[in-house]
Amino acid sequence: MAPPKKSKKKKKESRKLNKSKTMSVVPLEPKAIDSDWWDSFWVKNSSISGSSLLFSPFPSLFFLFFFIVIINRRKWLIVDFLFLCYVNFGSTVPTDEAEGFKYFFRVSKQTFEYICSLVREDLVSRPPSGLINIEGRLLSVEKQVAIALRRLASGESQVSVGAAFGVGQSTVSQVTWRFIEALEERARHHLKWPDSSRMEEIKSKLEASFGLPNCCGAIDATHIIMTLPTVQTSDDWCDPENNYSMLLQGIVDHEMRFLDIVTGWPGGMTVSRLLKCSGFFKLCDSEERLNGNVRTLSGGMKIREYIVGGLGYPLLSWLITPYENNGLSTSLSAFNAMHEAARLLAVRAFSQLKGSWRILNKVMWRPDKRKLPSIILVCCLLHNIIIDTGDKLHPDVALSGHHDSGYREQSCKQVDPMGRTARENIAKALTT
C-alpha cells in the first residue's frame, strides 16, 4: 500500500514552523596565540646532536634506512628527519640558549625580531588558511618566521620541519611561501647598488685590503642543483657536470655583501653568457653603472671603476680578470695574487650563503622553476640582513669546501683591448 499523502494544509503549517525556528549561535572562543613557541622548540630540539646520533648503538640501522631511501624514493619522508639530523647536526647543539637560537635559525634573537617587523603586516593581514598547530592554537608571526627560517636554513623537508614545530606539512609550505613573498617585497633595500658616496667607501676599503685601485667589488656564480620531472628536462638546464641546475650570479663588496644578483637562468649556460644576459652587463655596457670617478695613477694612467672576476669571465674595461699562469714575471704574479685575494671575496660569500641557507646547497626535489628565483633572492636578502645588522654567523655554518664543489673552473678567451690596457695599467701601478 502506498503511504498516505500529506495534506497541503499540513505542509503549509510545517513551512511556517520551520521559518519560525531560530538558530542558537554559540560564540567560538578565541584561540590562544602560540607565543611560547621558542621554549617548546628548544626543549624538543636542544637535546639532538650529531655526536649522540653518530655514536648511538644504531648506526647500522640508520644506514640501512638510508639505502632504502636510495632504492625507493617514496620512503624518503619516513627517514628524512633521521638523515638530516645526521647531516645537519654534525656538531653538538650549543648548550647556551642564545647560541642555540642562532644555530637553528642563523640569526640572533635581535635580528630575528627585526625580520619579524619587516613581514609582520603581511603575515597578519593575509595569513594562509588553517594556520594552527597540533594543539589548536593560532601560529604567532614569530613562529611563522621561525618555521620559514628553519626550512631555508636546514633544507629539511616540510615534514621534518613541521615535526620540529608541531605543525603539518601543508602549514610549513604555506608559511614558508608567504614569508618568502613578504620578505622579497619588504627587504629589497638590503640588496641594492651603492650610491656614489657608499661606493667611494667600498673602493677605499678594497684598496686598503688588496691594493687594487678603484675596484668596486668581485663577481662569481654558483649552481643551485635540482632534480626535474622527465617532461621538464632539457639540455638547457643540464650543466657541464651533468646536473640539472639554475645559475646564481652575484657581485659583492669588501664585507661580502651582495650588491647585485642575477638568477633564474638555466645551468647549461656558461658564466660569461649569464653575465651578458644580465641587466648589470647592459648597464655597464651603456656606462650607466661603474661610471663613477676615474682614478689617476702615478705616471698619469687613468683607471675607471671595475670589478674583478675569474678566468670564466671576459676581460673588459670594467671587468678585470687575472693573467693566465704561463711563465709570468714577478710583477704580474704579484698582480695575480692581489687579484685572487680580492676575487675570493665572492667565492667566500657564496660559501657563506649556501652554508647558512642549506636549501640552496642541497639537491632540490622538483622545484617550481618559476618560484625558485624568489627563494634564492630571499636567501641573498637574509645574507645581507645578517651583515647589515652586525650579526655574526655560528662558526659551524660556512661550507668547508668550495660553493660549487665538483665543478671545474670555466675559461673565457674573450679579451677587449680596453680591458687589456686597463689590466696592464693596474699591474704597473702595483709594482711602481
From TrEMBL:
Domain DDE Tnp4: 219-384
Subcellular location: Nucleus
Molecular function as annotated in GO: chromatin binding; hydrolase activity; metal ion binding; nuclease activity
Cofactor: a divalent metal cation
Record region (Disordered): 1-23
UniProt keyword list: Hydrolase, Membrane, Metal-binding, Nuclease, Nucleus, Transmembrane, Transmembrane helix
Pfam families per UniProt: DDE_Tnp_4 (PF13359)
Spans traversing the lipid bilayer: 53-71
GO cellular component, one term: ESC/E(Z) complex
Basic residues bias spans: 1-19
Family stated for the protein in its record: Belongs to the HARBI1 family.
Name this protein carries in UniProt: DDE Tnp4 domain-containing protein
